[in-house]
């Protein structure tokens, strides 16, 4: 090959590499057949959801009105319930299993002050290797079982030095740009519309109730903006500075995608973060975040969390069937 043709070949290779890089940067990527095959089949997914609902119905006919998702170390909340049935995730064939520390892996059905609840005693996470369809699958099942309101909770790191460890944050908005959307894929009309407005995800009435309870009882609660990351690694100092700069007050590896899926199904949503550690913003925290410490702190906050959620449920507007209404 002469020098001229060699130069042309090298230029062609460089151009191809450049264009490929531009495609990645701007999302200009043509899906291959392998990509397309990964999009869940809507009929198969609904069949799977309905199959789990049927399996649970064989164990209990309990119809919940409110769902509660319990984050790391917060599973003790179920001790406040009058439990009627417990369904381990492991008893449901092919059901996503919780592998994270502090997540028992049960659906717990019962009442609290007359309100019919189903509690997720442990969730599954994206970082455990599950697709987003699996991450939000338990929430969708609870809705199909009857729940029209969900109280989400999580252990979170604070990005805001005005929100110390041991505080609670009731979320008023979120940032979901760093995790895949749970709505990606074919439109499944049984679950709601594909293009869901996100201007009012977190119910303002429920937020006000939580803040009022905090004022009355001296529980440190503020409103804030929550950001979800994929995990499982914790955030670098530079990432923490960036997240704080774009407006986030707290960060965790869960909850936001569940809120999105809940709003698609037109559920009322309340998200309460338990601040279990201080993220390393501006090199303010030289102590590395430790998963065991996070769970231990959440358990220490568990009694106050249970009291807070119990009072929230007591004050929720309910209809004649004991369900929360708008």
Overview of the molecule:
The chain has 326 residues and is an alpha/beta fold. It has a single domain, classed as Rossmann fold, CATH 3.40.50.1580. The protein has 9 helices and 9 strands. The protein has helices spanning 3-26, 33-37, 42-59, 132-135, 137-144, 204-217, 237-245, 256-264, 291-315, and strands at 66-70, 82-88, 106-112, 115-121, 149-158, 168-175, 221-228, 250-252, 268-278. It has a 5-stranded mixed barrel. Helix 7 links the parallel strand 7 (221-228) and strand 8 (250-252). Helix 3 crosses helix 5 and helix 6 packs across helix 9. The longest helix is centred in the C-terminal third of the chain and has 25 residues, at 291-315. It is globular, with a radius of gyration of 22 Å. It starts with a helix and ends in an 11-residue tail after the last helix. Mean pLDDT is 85; it is low at 4-38.
